[in-house]
Structures are given as structure tokens and as C-alpha cells.
Amino acid sequence: QPAQYAPAIVVGSGYGAAVAALRLGQAGVRTVVLEMGRLWDAPGADGKVFPATTAPDQRSMWFRNRTEAPLATFLWLDVVNRDITPYPGVLDRVHHGDMSVYVGRGVGGGSLVNGGMAPTPRRSYFSEVLPAVDADEMYGTYFPRARRMLGVNDIDPGWFESTQWYRFARVSRKHAHNAGLRTVFVPNVYDFDYMRREAAGQVPRSALAGEVIYGNNHGKKSLDKTYLAAALGTGNVTIETMQRVVGVRPDPAGGYVVTAQTGDLTGRVTAVRELGCRQLFLGAGSLGTTEILLRARETGALPGLGEQVGRGWGTNGNVMTARANHLWDTVGACQATMPALGIDDWDNAGNPVFAEIAPLPMGLEHWISMYLAITRNPERGHFTYDAATDSARLHWRREQSAPSVQAAKALFDRVNRANVTIYRYDLFGENKPFADTFTYHPLGGCVLGEATDAYGRVKGCPGLYAVDGSLVPGSLGVNPFVTITALAERAMDRILATDPR
Ligand code: FAD
């Protein structure tokens, strides 16, 4: 029998995990959250919790000697990345051959490092991707609940039109409109009122100080300020940090036993613990949850797990690109880091693309328009378990990214033609105008309705649940965290109402 026991354990503390923790706590279930990263609440030597994006230090990345920012170079020069000391920093880039995956590490998971964009998917596409989920219920109850809980808000259009901080977005909008494309405002979880006060010089700057992928010191409603704060407030939830869950096995007495490694700030494992629970909620993200399940299946710890575990993984069709504008179309030395506008061409049946107009705050004037395109890439990857390294390996070949690049190229060729502009070749390495070897939106690996039932109950393992991005089958058409949150809300409603505790 394990020395420690809790009625419920939640693995990870990203979106799905945070919803599970809050709803369990409110239902009176004593719950332990195990998170492999740090709690980001104490200031460093510079007086800030997170480092500036332009001056990254050990806090920026997860056990690296050098930062690995999405933009590799500028003018082909290696001026973006910095040498750092290995430390449990907030952003990780997990390499899997031809595809690497950016993820957040720490209490709050991806909410600590993401761009805060909070769109709700097109209802028609959502129903196509997840036909087993009642769309009336999602759009009537769970999406509105997720948006409210996450603190989703809209930019004031009047301020957007007048502020220097969104000139970059207005320039990109003009170029999109010249090509006959539609743009839309995109809601965000960064508090736009706070941002206006930043611009007025009334409060410390964060989005207006270049902060985003290595954490925001102010303004952003990350999960530690929303769901996780509320979960702790129930008095039934505790969060344990630097706890990496590596094993799960059934407890002969019922429920599950989890094996967790305690890490220290140098990356050493200082202890290995076992914790028992009645119900186990996996919220370690697409990569984390899939690895835990795959390892358990392949080592025989959970032989009941089916063949669908490790399948149906996709990049949400992510591809990044950048255009070079004419000299008169400067984008501004001052740029807010939170995107507020997207090019919405998803209804173009021949080439659906939703492209976020991304900032590139360099603190100096320039002519680059950046985009993160979300495309409808039908390719799917899968994971296998590598016993030698005791880890999951993603199988994704370079050519599987080609449909994403083709779709983004078709859209931005249009924009370039209409504006007589060209792509930038100096930013992503290898002289490429399209960054097709990383994703911000890992989705799938434990797909809803395939590896689980329609509510995330893992098939063959009663009392074991997946609650995160691993449930989404590889594509959503928009940035994913609102959907991950809403799906977790829906699952927790059902699980708490019906499943034995
Ligand atoms: P995650 O948020 O990934 O959380 C998983 C947590 O589990 C992490 O804290 C991790 O450390 C922990 N963990 C993993 N393995 C283990 C283990 N074995 N044991 C214990 N803990 C573990 N999405 C949007 O919707 N809008 C955006 O603007 C946006 N921008 C992004 C920008 C960047 C740079 C990145 C990286 C992502 C962005 N995303 C965005 C994606 C979004 O953040 C993710 O889709 C979301 O965080 C996934 O939620 P999740 O619940 O699946 O898990």
C-alpha cells in the first residue's frame, strides 16, 4: 500500500487539470495536484518573477544551456538566443525528430507562456472534429462557462485603432484587405484594461514590455490567477510542485497507484514516491498524458489500455511565416505582445486558414509582418514507447507538414501579390520563409471517443480520465485552450454526477 493516499489525484496543472482540480474541490473531494514544474510566484534577483523576453536567463527555459526561441535568427544572424544555466524554466521545447513542440512548465502549464488568444471554434468545424459531443450543450453552456472562468475579454476597437501598440496589426489588416481577405478581432485573457493603463504609464508594463513566451509579470489571467486560485480556495485541493509522474498501476484494493519523481532545481531526482488514489485525472497535456498512458500500456502496468492510445496526434496545422513590407509600411517600434486580430479565411472551402497576426516586438522600428497560421492539415502522427529511454516518441515526418505550408503559402501568396511584397527568409533558419518544424498547439494522443469514451473516461481503466489537449483529434481550426477548458468542464460535470468516488 502506498504511504500517501488522496481520493483524487490530478496530474499536471494546465487547462484540463485546473478545471478538474476546481470541480473536484468544489464537490468536496480531497485532491492532490502533481505538477513537474515550479510555482512561479517569487521574484528573482531583478525583482521580477519572469525574465524579459529580450534578456532571457535560467528562468526562461526548461533545463537548457541555450534558449530555443521560435525565431532562430534575424538578418540570418544568431542574435536571438542566449546561453543560460540549466534550471526548471517556464518554457520547454520538446524535440521529436522533424517536429518539436513548445509547452509551458509550471503551475498553470501553457497559460504561463501562451499568447492568451481565446477564440471559440466555428461550430460547424467543431462538430466535424468531435461529432460525439453535443454542440448545443457546448455552445450553450460549456464555452460560455469556460470564457467567463478564464477571464476572456475583448479589445476596445476605438483604442485598437488609435494606439501605437497595435500599428503592426493595422498594417497587416490593410494588407489582408487589399487581398480581399476578412479580418476579425480575437478575444484574449490578457486584461485589455490593464494594457491601456500600461500604455498610459499608470501601471508596470508587461505586454507592452515585450513579455510573453517566458511569462508575463502582469496583466495576464493565467490559470494560477483563475481556476487554480479558486481550486485552492475550496480548501480541498493541494498542489505539489517539481513532481513528475512517471508511472500508473492499478491498486489491488481499488483505484490507482501513481509513481512520481521529485526533482530539484538542478534537474536531479531526489526522491521517488508512490501515491494512491481512487480517481486519477491526467492533465499533463497532449505529450505528457500520452506518454504516461503509453508507458503504462507497454510496460504492462495497465494492460487494459487499448490500441488507440498514442494515436490521432496533430499540430493544429500550425505554420509560422513572415512578410517584408515596403519601407513606408513600418510596423512600429512599440508592439503589444498579445495578438488581437486574425485573418479569417476558414470558410474558404478550397483552402481554409485562420492566421493570427502576430507581434514581433524588437524595440526598434522594422518592416516585418509576422503570422501564426492555423491550417486544416489532415496528416496525423502517432507515438510509440521507446524502452531504451523510457519515453514516448512522436512519429511525424517532415512531409506531413507540407499541407500546412501549402495552405499558408496559398493565402500569403495572395497577400504578397496584392501588396507587391515578398516573404522574409532570414528568421526561421535554413533560409525558409515558413517555420514548419514546431507547433504551439499539440493536440491528440488520447482522443475523445476513441481512446476514451465521450467524456474522457479512459477505456479499459475505470476511474482513470484524460482531461486535456490529448482528447482533441489533432485539429480545431483556432487556438485551442478555450475548447480544452470547455471540454474539461463538460467531462467533470458528467463524471462528478455519475461516477463512483
Ligand atoms: P498544458 O497547459 O500543456 O499543461 C500540462 C501541464 O502538465 C504542464 O504544466 C506540464 O509541466 C505538466 N506535466 C507534463 N507532464 C507531466 C508529468 N509527467 N508529471 C507532472 N506534470 C506534468 N493556445 C491558445 O488557445 N491561445 C494562444 O494564444 C496560445 N498561444 C500559445 C503560445 C505558446 C508559446 C505556446 C507554447 C502555446 C500556446 N497555446 C495557445 C497553446 C495552449 O497553451 C495549449 O493548448 C494548452 O496549454 C494545453 O492545455 P493542456 O491542459 O492540454 O495542458
TrEMBL record:
Keywords: Cholesterol metabolism, FAD, Flavoprotein, Isomerase, Lipid metabolism, Oxidoreductase, Signal, Steroid metabolism, Sterol metabolism. Gene3D superfamilies: Cholesterol Oxidase, domain 2, FAD/NAD(P)-binding domain. Its cofactor is FAD. Pathway: Steroid metabolism; cholesterol degradation. The keyword Iron does not apply. Its EC number is 1.1.3.6, 5.3.3.1. Residues 104-127 form the Glucose-methanol-choline oxidoreductase N-terminal domain. Pfam families: GMC_oxred_C, GMC_oxred_C_1st. PROSITE patterns: GMC_OXRED_1, TAT. Belongs to the GMC oxidoreductase family. This is Cholesterol oxidase.
